[in-house]
Amino acid sequence: MPRLVDIPMLETERLTFRAPEIGDFDALAPFVMSERARYVGGGADKDIGHAWRILATLCGHWHLRGTGVFVAVRKDTGAPIGSMGPWYPDPWPERELSWTIWDSDAEGKGYATEAMIAIRRHVYADLGWDTAVSYVDPKNTRSAALAVCLDCVIDPDAKAPHAEDVVYRHPAPAEVLT
């Protein structure tokens, strides 16, 4: 089976972060076609083809940018539960740290917080980023709450890819790498 190569694997206590693979489609597709995905380009009006294009986009970002979102996999079950990590497609104004939890049973258990703390350290320490933002639809209260939990602050002067997005600025590397 073809695989993305030269992509680091990261770990936390409960999760492994790896490159997207074809086997993730079974977990990703139901999420993309659900109302839970309405803030990240999915929704109940989307079809299986749209879900396939999302997976292809996640994979392609690695080839085009040399970095991209990881698939978060639970260590205890081996199940992929979401995608999260560095994201910088055109025409994004800045490098973003993004997150989605595909599996509704994995919500509210701290996985996204755990993941983003580790991934933020990775982009600052290993990739040399000096800043990061997260773009959040103002109606996406769960993502806004996670941004606050990660000590992000609203940056009213930053540009967003969509007019309605709120830009949350992550703490600087010096604040999280100590």
What name goes with the CATH superfamily? Gcn5-related N-acetyltransferase (GNAT)
In N-to-C order, the SSE pattern is EEHHEEEHEHEEH
Q: Mean pLDDT, as a whole number?
A: 96
The level-1 CATH class = Alpha Beta
Q: Regions with pLDDT < 50 over 5+ consecutive residues?
A: none
Content-based structural category: alpha+beta
Helical amount: 25-40%
Largest sheet: 5 strands, antiparallel
User: How many separate domains make up the residues?
Assistant: 1
Q: At CATH's second level, what is the architecture? A: 3-Layer(aba) Sandwich
Summarize the structure in words.
The structure is a single chain. With 178 residues, the protein is an alpha+beta fold. It has one domain: Gcn5-related N-acetyltransferase (GNAT) (Aminopeptidase, 3-Layer(aba) Sandwich), CATH 3.40.630. 30% of the residues lie in helices and 20% in strands. Strand 3 (70-74) and strand 4 (80-87) form a beta hairpin. The longest helix has 18 residues, at 48-65.
Write the layout of secondary structure elements.
Elements: E1 10-11, E2 15-18, H1 25-32, H2 48-65, E3 70-74, E4 80-87, E5 96-101, H3 111-125, E6 133-136, H4 141-149, E7 153-154, E8 166-169, H5 173-176
Antiparallel strand pairs: 1-2, 2-3, 3-4, 4-5, 6-8, 7-8
Helix pairs in contact: 1-2
How would you concisely characterize the structure shown here?
The protein is 30% helix and 20% strand.
Write out key terms for the chains shown.
Aminopeptidase; 178 residues; three-stranded antiparallel sheet; five-stranded antiparallel sheet; single chain; 8 strands; alpha+beta; 5 helices
